[in-house]
Specification:
By secondary structure, the protein is α+β, with helices and mostly antiparallel strands. Helices cover 13% and strands 32% of the residues. The protein has 2 domains: 99 residues, Carboxypeptidase-like, regulatory domain (Immunoglobulin-like, Sandwich), CATH 2.60.40.1120; 154 residues, Ferric Hydroxamate Uptake Protein, Chain A, domain 1 (Beta Complex), CATH 2.170.130.
Length: 309
């Protein structure tokens, strides 16, 4: 074997080793920053400032945030200014508890966190024993001040209870968001991407609208169109339509953000029947003596291990 062939073999193995090292480096970053990879607008944040009855800040208080659907617990301590921030929380229902020696326990229930939302709490701990509890019911301050985006969240109750023609996907539900036009027919699937007009923008034939599913881009790359193909409606927790001013992480001025439902700590399922009868329909105004169209639909379905939230 001459020297030229030997050098060529060395170059090939050198490139293979370099590629393997690069792959290992990327995988290492993925494992080390797993929570950060969840960003992309699909999680929420609970933050607050802990004070006593006089308004003085309480430092080193223990803040316990529990997702009641799954019993997942996150714990942090308040800073020198009495503040706390817990990020990367999946959408769902939460309870927040604050404890500190010499003060009564603060507990806030009934907190519902949706996609890309920051909830600001103001726990007040009166003097007393830790065994005493002050319980508050409510969601806290949910005014969005982090960016200038305009959007609407459609939660699981609306997804499950809205009557749709065929219940094939999100096409009929996207229209629930204000400022959305030209979504398309409910009983069809947009196999080449969706092109509705959002906010003040025109119809997004090419670009202008992006789509993510659980934080991963879900887009027709060649046409630059958002893909509507998502799991069945029973498997969707909620979705958000950003009609204008979407953050730079989405790369487009409008975005469709879909989050699938996670499991809960209880086994459950569901069955459905949606009835659309001719007898309940109305004729168009200019139909005249023409009879009502024989439009009958009764879709049935079941999900023995539904993961609804």
């Amino acid at each position: 074997m001459n020297e030229r062939k030997i050098n060529l073999i060395k170059q090939i193995f050198g490139r293979m080793a370099h590629a393997s090292l690069s792959l290992c480096f990327v995988l290492s970053l993925a494992f080390m920053s797993g929570e950060r990879l969840l960003a992309q607008g699909i999680t929420g944040t609970i933050a607050g400032n802990v004070t006593d009855a006089t308004g003085a800040t309480i430092t080193e208080a223990t803040v316990t945030i529990t997702q009641t659907d799954t019993n997942t617990v996150r714990k942090v301590t308040t800073s020198d200014t009495g503040s706390f921030t817990v990020t990367q929380l999946p959408p769902g229902h939460y309870t927040v508890q604050v404890d500190h020696a010499g003060f009564q326990t603060f507990r806030q229930v009934g907190i519902t966190l949706v996609i890309d939302q920051t909830i600001q709490l103001s726990p007040v701990l009166p003097n007393g024993e830790v065994t005493q509890t002050v319980e508050v019911t409510g969601a806290g301050n949910t005014i969005q001040t982090q960016d200038s985006s305009i959007g609407t969240v459609v939660e699981s109750q609306a997804i499950q209870n809205t009557p749709l023609n065929g219940r094939l996907g999100l096409m009929g539900l996207i229209s629930l968001a204000p400022g959305i036009q030209g979504v398309g027919a409910q009983d069809q699937l947009a196999t080449r991407g969706i092109t509705f007009a959002a906010g003040t923008g025109s119809r997004s034939s090419y670009g202008g609208l992006t789509s993510t599913l659980d934080g991963v881009t879900n887009q027709e790359v060649t046409l630059q169109r958002a893909e509507p193909e998502v799991p069945s409606l029973d498997a969707i927790s909620q979705f958000k339509v950003l009609s204008n001013g979407a953050p730079a992480e989405f790369g487009q001025p409008a975005a469709l953000i879909v989050v699938s439902a996670s499991g809960t700590n209880q086994f459950h399922g569901g069955a459905l029947e949606y009835n659309r009868s001719k007898g309940m329909g109305a004729k168009a105004y200019f139909s005249g003596a023409n009879p009502r169209p024989p439009y009958q639909r009764k879709p049935l379905g079941a999900n023995p291990d539904s993961s609804r939230l």
